[in-house]
C-alpha cells in the first residue's frame, strides 16, 4: 500500500515538474524575445536621434520577432504530460483509471496535433520572396 501511494506521488511530481519546467521555459523565451525587441528599438531610436537611418538588419530582426514559431516546445510539454498521465493510468485503480485515461488520451492527441503543426508548418524564413506577403 505504501508503494502505491509513493507511485502516485511520483506521478504527480512528474506532471507538476513537466508543467513547471515548461512554464518557466516559455516565460524565459518570452523575456529573451522582449529583450531582443527592446534592443532593436533602442538602436532605431539612437539612429533617429543622430539623424541617420537604422541599419536594415534591425528592421529585419523586428519583422522576424513578430512571426509565430513552430510549436516544438508544446510538443515536448504535451508529450511529457501524456507520459505522466499514462503512467498514472497504469498505476491507478478502479474508477480513477477512467480519469487518467481521458486526460492521457487528450494530452496525447494534443501532442500529436502540435507535432503535425510543427512538421507541416511552411518555412517562413524571411527570404526576399516574403516581402510581398
Structure in words:
- The chain is mostly helical.
- The protein has 4 helices and no strands.
- It has one domain.
- Helix 1 runs antiparallel to helix 3 and helix 3 runs antiparallel to helix 4.
- The radius of gyration is 22 Å and the shape is elongated.
- The chain starts with a helix and ends in a 13-residue tail after the last helix.
- 10% of the residues are buried.
Describe how the helices and strands are arranged.
Blueprint: H1 2-49, H2 56-65, H3 72-91, H4 96-120
Offer a quick outline of the entry.
The protein is mainly α. The chain has one domain. The chain has helices at residues 2-49, 56-65, 72-91, 96-120.
Order of helices and strands: HHHH
Give the distance, in angstroms, between the N- and C-terminal Cα atoms.
Answer: 62 Å
Residues in β-strands, percent: under 5%
Into how many domains do the coordinates divide? 1
Radius of gyration: 22 Å
Q: Helicity, in percent?
A: over 70%
Given as residue ranges, the uncertain stretches (5+ residues, pLDDT < 50) are 125-133
The number of strands is 0
Largest sheet: none
What structural class is derived from the secondary structure elements? mainly alpha
Query: Could you report the average pLDDT, rounded to the nearest whole number?
Result: 80
* General form: elongated
Number of helices: 4
Amino acid at each position: 500500500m505504501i508503494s502505491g501511494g509513493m507511485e502516485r506521488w511520483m506521478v504527480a511530481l512528474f506532471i507538476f515538474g513537466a508543467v513547471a519546467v515548461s512554464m518557466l521555459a516559455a516565460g524565459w523565451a518570452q523575456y529573451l524575445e522582449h529583450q531582443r525587441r527592446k534592443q532593436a528599438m533602442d538602436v532605431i531610436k539612437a539612429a533617429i536621434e543622430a539623424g541617420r537611418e537604422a541599419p536594415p538588419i534591425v528592421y529585419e530582426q523586428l519583422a522576424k520577432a513578430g512571426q509565430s514559431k513552430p510549436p516544438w516546445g508544446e510538443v515536448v510539454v504535451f508529450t511529457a504530460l501524456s507520459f505522466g498521465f499514462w503512467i498514472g493510468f497504469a498505476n491507478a485503480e478502479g474508477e480513477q483509471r477512467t480519469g487518467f485515461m481521458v486526460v492521457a488520451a487528450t494530452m496525447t492527441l494534443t501532442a500529436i496535433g502540435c507535432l503535425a503543426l510543427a512538421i507541416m508548418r511552411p518555412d517562413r524564413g524571411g527570404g526576399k520572396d516574403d516581402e510581398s506577403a
